[in-house]
Design a protein that fits this description.
6-stranded antiparallel sheet; homodimer; about 425 residues; Carbamate kinase
Chain lengths: ~425, ~425
């Protein structure tokens, strides 16, 4: 008997029929002798409907009140899903974040979970009851309703799995797992049966938006086995097949001995790069440039500063294309103040990255990557590396080509 | 400075525009120096939408889960209304039933309020904040979400007013007060400026559905001044005018010295009467007949048993027309068992009632009522009286005529 936390996204519970399917799926896992905790999102479209209502009242809604309104989406789903389970003869009971007591901080609309009381859930599980817990929401120390922000239901599920020391946290979604790259660009892209948390973090932040990055971080930190799997398979799929479907996100060291060198090719469209040239090489320069950018709430992705020549260096960073104009005007103001020479920018770039834990112990990955791109005549404009990732900035027109040739060069279409 | 609880029904908060109007109205009372607690219902149609969703999942929804789903309607409104108040510069803060702590029993879908914590509300009021409290909902001792059943928002408002010892509980609705009778039948029907709780109870239960009967009972018991007034007047109506509009439901003895003899003519359509004839006059007969009726969940209205003649009596009662067939078949089974002679019924009757506290000290009301009906050739089939009410059952075809002639005979179209 295993203890499993199952999370179902908004599309999976988007209609009465789909809620019934979710109930069938949960019933199947219960019937196989597992203890199950279910965490559904709001029905697809419901959160947006509520946010739109709020914005009609207040263009910038009061955050505390916005959470009161937004949290009702999940509250409706937990009640309906508990009913659907009851209708199938499965004992079930719904809980809001406040009822479980999912304690969060008071950062309305983007709270973080501080602690989860497990008494009620444990009692239910021992009594054979399936607790149906509202994702995305909690309560702060003063009893105010809070939400975790977009995608927070994934985080709720992982946090519950960590608290209850669940054997697995299953995230049902409308994709059937994590791929070596985007199948729309490379049709031979292959589903990964396993991937490490670190790789998943790099893949997620680089554009493979299967799971919310925060929930992956949380799962890695809490050592929760996480499985992404499809809610589009038949609800009565034999449990043996479902149990090994999707992609398992593992703890690298103990579960992933036969890790392949490279797991996938990730990419970010819609990037823009800004370079400040002739920057005097002295302490505080990076902060002088990026401080005002951060103050303007512009997220910075890559940051590159090369070794200085004759006391001057070039300083580059990338931002989302939507923030390009804003960032440029800030940097243009800063440039004379710090005695730099000029600012140049390009908002037609993209980033292509190779990700893989195996990279650590295999030399030559970078050189193979650069050679592959060079053979296609793709100029690399910027390079940045981490322990398990190499990213190259190239002109956006090469994005698809770069991803395809790298996927082939590293034989990612071959089984793991 | 007064402390006022203001309740707004579903139509009054049925759109973003109307929620803004409610906020303007509340802001006006605040600006005049009053402390205000607001209790809104769910947006019109929302509760029905949620119940329909639940019934699609489970034809007889699990009551605990139904309350989880249904309570979200009011939760959305409190958040939106608190935002609308904030937008007008009025400090406001929303509370669910659980957050206030409106403690109820555990009778899901029809709970009763046991106690209300006033600490948070008091603190807010003293800090100049308008608490916006979700009507219709509470929480039981185990932390389960409960609802008070249809119309429960009125009860929530009255209970809050009682707990906080508010100066007045104002129920804003889409009528502008309580009338001497239904204006659709008698165009000269006049709005009552005041009415006693007892009269209101008789009027409400007899068909003038302005307020939920439970909330009126509660207000009377808790000695809360209750005012029914219109949410359709301009939100910027001068506060002096709004404060004396509608109908004030008063404590008879201390506020209503100049009480008129009769307050109004109430009526019930869609009644049916059942008479058991030749009933042996012995103890336990009434229970033998009505016990099985109650067991079948049929509500009984009038019950009449006349003095017996030669050891036998006739026993009559009225039920809603929808329950007529069910009640008849039950009574037909009971009749031979108790040695009664026969059962006769009529499902084409209605009930017309004169209501007035003044009736107590004025003889001759009944005789004037009967004479008025006789002069129009209206046969009275059954009569029942209480201290402040006389009801007559007549053939349903006479309903409008009876109400009109009685309204005129008692000069109800003249000012109080």
């Amino acid at each position: 008997m295993a203890l499993i936390v199952q999370k179902f996204g908004g599309t999976s519970v988007g209609s009465v029929e789909r809620i019934r399917n979710v109930a069938m799926r949960v019933a199947k896992w219960r019937a196989a002798g597992n203890q199950v905790v279910v965490v559904p999102s709001a029905m697809a479209g419901e959160t947006n409907r509520l946010l739109a209502l709020a914005r009609e009242i207040q263009p910038n809604p009061n955050p505390r009140e916005l959470d009161v309104v937004a949290s009702t989406g999940e509250q409706v789903t937990i009640g309906l899903l508990a009913m659907a389970l009851t209708e199938l003869g499965v004992k079930a009971r719904s809980y809001t974040g406040a009822q479980v007591r999912v304690l969060t901080d008071s950062a309305f609309t983007k709270s973080r979970i501080v602690a989860i009381d497990q008494d009620r859930l444990r009692a239910d599980l021992e009594a054979g009851i399936v607790p149906v817990v509202a994702g995305f929401q909690g309560i702060d120390a003063e009893g105010n309703i809070t939400t975790l922000g977009r995608g927070g239901s994934d985080t709720s599920a992982v946090a519950l799995a960590a608290t209850l020391k669940a054997d697995e946290c299953q995230i049902y979604t409308d994709v059937d797992g994590v791929y070596t790259t985007d199948p729309r660009i490379v049709p031979e892209a292959r589903r990964l049966k396993t991937i490490t948390f670190e790789e998943m973090l790099e893949m997620a932040s680089l554009g493979s938006k299967v799971l919310q990055i925060r929930s992956v971080e949380f799962a890695g930190k809490s050592r929760v086995r996480l499985r992404v799997l499809s809610s589009l398979t038949p609800p009565d799929l034999p449990i043996d097949e479902e149990a090994v479907s999707g992609t398992l996100i593992t703890f690298e060291e103990d579960e992933n001995m036969e890790q392949a060198t490279i797991s996938g090719v990730a990419f970010n469209r819609d990037e823009a790069k800004i370079t400040v040239t002739g920057v005097p090489d002295r302490p505080g320069i990076a902060y002088a440039i990026l401080g005002p950018i951060a103050d303007a709430n512009v997220d910075v992705d890559m940051i590159i500063q090369n070794a200085s020549v004759a006391g001057f260096t070039d300083f580059s960073f990338t931002v989302h294309r939507n923030d390009y104009d804003k960032a440029m005007s800030i940097v243009r103001k800063v440039t004379p103040e710090i005695g730099a020479k000029d600012v140049v920018g390009d908002n037609r770039i993209c980033k292509v990255s190779m990700v893989g834990v195996g990279m650590r112990s295999h030399v030559g990955i970078a050189s193979q990557m650069f050679r592959t791109l060079a053979e296609e005549g793709i100029n690399i404009e910027m390079i940045s590396t981490s322990e398990i990732k190499i990213s190259a900035v190239v002109n956006e027109k090469y994005l698809e080509l770069a991803v395809r040739v790298l996927h082939r060069a590293f034989s990612l279409d071959q089984p793991q």
